[in-house]
Every structure is written in C-alpha cells, then in structure tokens.
Amino acid sequence: MIRKEIFMNNYEIKNIVFDVGDVLVHFRYRDHMKDLGFSDEAVDFLSENMVLTEFWHELDLGIRTEQEAIDTFTTLYPQYDREIRIFWANTEPLVAEYPYAKPMIQSIREQGYGVYLLSNYPTDLSDRHWPKFTFLPETNGHIISAFEKMAKPDPRFYQLLTSRFGLNLNECIFIDDRPKNITPAAELGMKALPFTGYEKLKSDLQEFGIRIPSREA
C-alpha cells in the first residue's frame, strides 16, 4: 500500500520510531519476582532499590555489567542475597512481548512507513531477549543504548537515527512511555507521542492517517 503524504509542520511523516520496554514488550520485573517466589516485601524492596535505580540506568548505558549488579546489590542488601542471585540467574522471563507488537509494525510498514527502534537496554539482557522478539525482523533498524554508551534522554542518542540511518528527525513520529524521554524528542523536531496504552496510540496515529489493527485482531 502506498503511504499517504501526511505532513506535520511542513514535513512529511515518513518514519515511526518506537521505544521497546513497556511499549512493545512488558518489562514485568515485579511479576517476574513473584513468579520466582519472592515475598511481597522482597518484591517491593528490590523493585525500588535495584530495578528503579540509577544503577539500572548505568546498565542501560553499558557502563555496568550484570556481575557488577550482583556484587553491588548483594553487598548493599545482604538480607536479600538469595533473592538477588536468583533474580539475575533467571532473567529470560523478565520481559514478555505484547501480542499486538508484530501485527502493528507489519501494518505500519505495509502503509509505506519506516519503523525503527530506539531503546534503553542493557547489553546482556538485549543479547538474551532481542533475538526472541518476533517483531524485530519487521523493523527497518534499531539502536540499543548499551552498545552506544549513551541512552535516552540524551539528545545525542536520538541523533543517532540521523547518522546511522539517514533519518530526518522532522519526518519522524517518536513513541515512548516515559515523559522524560518524550521531551528531547520533541525539542529535536520529532512528533513525540507519549504511550499510555494501545488504544490511545491507535487514536493518536489515526490523526496522522496511520492505521493500526484493533488489539483483538
């Protein structure tokens, strides 16, 4: 199908750029810990003090390793030594692909748009998870933060879309679930859409004449 000429601020929209975590896949760290048999107290504590920390961002930046994570957090929180080691020994189920991801991307591509991924993701986890994402072969390209030693919301990370793939950022729609990542995308000229759910995204894209399937399809 031929892409319609959809214009935004006098620029034709040609590409859709997706975040991955909690947009195309569920970052299910709390459910994962529950599946591993952790107590509610351990789930709450490790979510707040291990996953949702600056250290995890350093994993995304590729300047920390999983072994450093184990060493650091077992030293800081010896009361959860067992749980921390079990968590890092069983990271394959840490994410789950959303069923809508592949058909959505296929639909967008069929309408003539390019689809790219711009993701904050640690090195080891991306090596483990990304080969299993069924939507990955449907995209035109992707950039993973840990391999670049930079991450969102650093404006330089977004600009890799231009230097790596030749994209004009003014011709891109950017979709991310984190407001702090939306702001620099908009400042760089991208049409930035906050992801708050699939049906809202469907409505937002429809304003640009871009159709995606119903979630049940």
Question: Can you lay out the helices and strands and say which pair or pack?
Answer:
Blueprint lengths: L6 E2 L2 E2 L2 E4 L6 E3 L1 H7 L4 H12 L2 H7 L5 H11 L4 H9 L5 E3 L3 H10 L3 E6 L3 H7 L11 E4 H4 L6 H11 L6 E5 L2 H9 L3 E4 L3 H9 L11
Parallel strand pairs: 3-6, 3-8, 6-7, 8-9
Antiparallel strand pairs: 1-2, 4-5
Helix pairs in contact: 1-2, 4-5
Please explain how this structure is put together.
- It is a single chain.
- By secondary structure, the protein is of the alpha/beta class.
- The protein folds into 2 domains: about 130 residues, HAD superfamily/HAD-like (Rossmann fold, 3-Layer(aba) Sandwich); about 70 residues.
- Helix content is about 45%, strand content about 15%.
- It has 11 helices and 9 strands.
- Strands 7-6-3-8-9 form a 5-stranded parallel beta sheet, sandwiched between helices. A two-stranded antiparallel sheet has the order 1-2.
- α7 links the parallel β6 and β7.
- The N terminus is likely disordered.
